[in-house]
Amino acid sequence: MERTVVQITLTGLLLALASTLPNKNDWDIYSFHINSTVTSRYATTVITSRVVNRMNESKEIEFHVRIPKNAFISKFRMFIDGQVYEGVVKAKEQAQQQYSEAVSRGESAGLVSSVGRTLEEFKTSVTVAAHKKVTFELTYEELMKRTHGKYELQIHARPMQPVRDFKVDVYIHEEAGISFIDVKGGLSTKALANAITKTHADKQAWVYFYPTADQQKMCDSCGDQGMNGDLVIVYDVSRDNGLGEIKKSAGYFVHHFAPSNLPRIPKNVVFLIDQSGSMHGKKIQQTRTALIHILNDLAEDDHFGLITFDGNIFHWKQELVQANSKNLENAKNFARNIQDRGSTDINQAVLQGANMLNVHHREGSASILILLTDGDPTSGETNLEKIQSNVRQAIAGKFPLYCLGFGFDVNFEFLEKMSLQNNGVARRIYEDSDADLQLKGFYEEVATPLLTDVTMVYVGGTNLTQTNFSQYYNGSEIVVAGQITDNDIETFIPQAVAISNNRRVTFSNTNDAVKSTGRMSHDHVQRVWAYLTVKQLLDKELKLSGPEKETAKNEALELSLKYSFVTPLTSMVVTKPLGESIDVLHKPKEGETPQRGQPPVDQPKSQKTTPLAKFLHFTQLMELGSVHRHFVNDTFFCSFASIHWIVAEVFLLKAENQTIPLCFDVSGAVLLKLLHHSSRELFVNGELDSVANGGFSRIVIHFKTDQHVEIGTMGVTVRDGQTVTHHTGVTVIIRNKEIDIAAGDMRLVILVHEKNGEKFLWPVLRQHPSTNNTEGLLDVSFIFFFLCVCVCSDSTVDYTVASPPTMNCWLMSAESALQRPLDDFYVAQL
Ligand SMILES: *[C@@H]1O[C@H](CO)[C@@H](O)[C@H](O)[C@H]1NC(C)=O
Ligand SMILES: *[C@@H]1O[C@H](CO)[C@@H](O)[C@H](O)[C@H]1NC(C)=O
Ligand SMILES: *[C@@H]1O[C@H](CO)[C@@H](O)[C@H](O)[C@H]1NC(C)=O
Ligand SMILES: *[C@@H]1O[C@H](CO)[C@@H](O)[C@H](O)[C@H]1NC(C)=O
Ligand SMILES: *[C@@H]1O[C@H](CO)[C@@H](O)[C@H](O)[C@H]1NC(C)=O
Ligand SMILES: *[C@@H]1O[C@H](CO)[C@@H](O)[C@H](O)[C@H]1NC(C)=O
Ligand SMILES: *[C@@H]1O[C@H](CO)[C@@H](O)[C@H](O)[C@H]1NC(C)=O
Ligand SMILES: *[C@@H]1O[C@H](CO)[C@@H](O)[C@H](O)[C@H]1NC(C)=O
């Protein structure tokens, strides 16, 4: 049998998709609201989109929005015709299982997720009847992180068409007082600026953005499709420079600690710069530019070191030197001459950098190690675990390691793990025209250490989030949440202890810093605690191994479920109206490419038994997002990051210009259940032809319990023009090469084919019974759980027509195609 790999090309699929995209006249978003409420830096945002199907036929209507990566989706609902369809958060495996079950029940399924620089995509759709309406409502939550002395609430608006009733409402309530508030982002410019109203009154602020439909076409990235851009609300809160702000409610507390009136601590910083060949071109240029800017910003009492590395390690100076003007000038010259070449020895680079800092210990200073790389370790030690353990040992918790991963070729998870294991964080630097600004921006976050060895102490507190921080930088914020034991506020004593400029300092509760929440909703503080705990457990899960990893994972999962957060461990299952797909929504990992972590679960056997009957399955692939594919030998693996299936009788996988059906083999001399229609007492079974070219040697039809018609290839019952009518209402018409069986609203045709002088039978269900109590191979819902199903191309003959053509098909295992064991279709006797 000939087997060639046919490439499904993405363009082909997208072209197929494009033709099915909604025409903008088909449906109308008559209202689109984004409502964001921020309390104590915790933002809860609700996006509500109301859509009407203007057509006189049912239409698939899409809801497609982008939300910040840092956020967790916590609720999704659809309102259609007085009914509410609400998403349920489940453990990922369980959701996956439900998804498969839905598929085998004949409901289709889809899942959605994707990543940009700061945003994730949420996409779903539902079929809406003619002239009916649907309301989509998505809620997500996030704790805003303070960087560079401010919080930023990013709201992405892209309704896909100008909307008459478009509104963004932001309400901020900060008990400590709002020190300033600004509105930035692409949507705050040009004609749209007029649509913004900002009100600020001490503890509260309101931002309204109500652009008219005309204004929505007039910003930089807007057009006939309406708006496409961000509104960024930037603000900060007033601070007392003491212990900060502590809110408590219902037995939970959250503490925001960000003193800024402290002297800066001189720092010792070592930059490790990857100059391997892959940094060639723009990346190395931008690195040079950023480094020169950063050197300019060093203070005179800072000490610094520079190491460039490829397969070898180059010290600019063997030791740390003071950041005086002479040394800086020299260093900048060195930076200007950094050239790309060679491989990547991350292990040696980090060890040498750590060593420089270790030998240069200065009392009362803060040491920082910054690694910039764009690739995997390729020379020296390349075993990732070995590198991590070497680095942990060399740093021994004495200073943080920050890893900047440049571009998408880096193993970001490796960098993230290594940073987390050494009290730092990893950051991705996007290959873009502003990469030097991203590098500089990151450096500025850690440029001004104010405290080291910060320990947050809460007597009378329990279930605390992280309390020890190796360094605290100006412009950032330390946030700790926890529970108050027995909700006893009297015995609850918060305190912060740290080292500032060689001195031990204690921040304690001088005035009444512990505020009970007034206007805040009851469970708000608890949700902040849950959010922060889950985030930190996910980090822990990444950096730990063994049983501790499992524990962290289980705890994170438990809390995600309890608080209904869609995290990397959970998925949201959205059940749609009867007969429509279930969607499973996953949160992607940072920079995740679609194939990661989703190995194919089902592979066609490479040594197949001789195929005897090859069934063709048809259904229509309507839409899909990104497709990943790779080939291992002649096996085609595909995983879909974002797919959506429509239930349809005909399922065709569209390759470039071609329509390729799916097929599967059933082999051996087995007896198969073709169609059982219990309410009509009609049962059709078939015996596979074990020697010939495929198809069946015998098919037996049972009516009631005592009437049977047997059709064989030489069969006596095959006679021209003879009509057999049974009192059960079943009609059998026997023609040349075709036996036609009609029972009520069902019609089954058995074709008699001949190949190489041998005859065989092929059953075709020409008219599907309208009731749903049928089963059998001819009646499986033609739906595929395509994620992780491997298919390879094959050729087959379409015996469902009288003059069968040979055609290409995607071969898959029977189990994948049928979504249940083939055994389910076996019968004991004909
Ligand atoms: C926004 O949401 C808040 C909290 O659910 C609610 O109180 C407020 O009325 C909403 N605002 C608008 C304009 O819908
Ligand atoms: C539905 O729309 C089509 C084309 O727009 C039109 O031909 C048809 O008459 C319409 N049917 C009804 C019932 O309005
Ligand atoms: C820290 O930041 C605040 C406000 O952003 C500024 O006033 C202060 O001078 C900074 N402290 C140091 C040591 O740079
Ligand atoms: C909080 O801590 C107590 C023990 O200190 C523990 O029994 C309880 O399960 C914890 N609660 C949560 C939600 O982690
Ligand atoms: C936090 O730091 C304190 C004092 O440095 C130490 O006693 C404690 O064990 C640390 N806690 C954790 C969880 O590392
Ligand atoms: C692919 O082929 C190579 C040899 O050509 C073989 O070693 C390998 O096992 C094959 N892989 C699979 C998955 O069949
Ligand atoms: C697709 O079809 C068009 C027109 O029939 C033809 O020009 C083109 O070459 C085809 N592309 C492929 C990849 O077969
Ligand atoms: C089958 O049809 C009956 C009656 O029409 C209905 O009650 C039942 O829910 C249907 N079952 C399925 C699985 O659709």
Automatic annotation (TrEMBL):
VWFA domain boundaries: 268-446
Keywords: Glycoprotein, Protease inhibitor, Secreted, Serine protease inhibitor, Signal
Any Pfam family the entry gives: VWA
SUPFAM superfamilies recorded: vWA-like (SSF53300)
InterPro entries registered for this protein in UniProt: ITIH, VIT, VWF_A, vWFA_dom_sf
Domain VIT, chain residue ranges per copy: 13-142
GO cellular component: extracellular region
Signal peptide: 1-20
Subcellular locations according to the entry: Secreted
Annotated region described as Disordered, given as residue ranges: 586-607
Keyword Glycoprotein: yes
GO molecular function: serine-type endopeptidase inhibitor activity
Recorded family membership: Belongs to the ITIH family.
Protein name, as recorded: Inter-alpha-trypsin inhibitor heavy chain 3
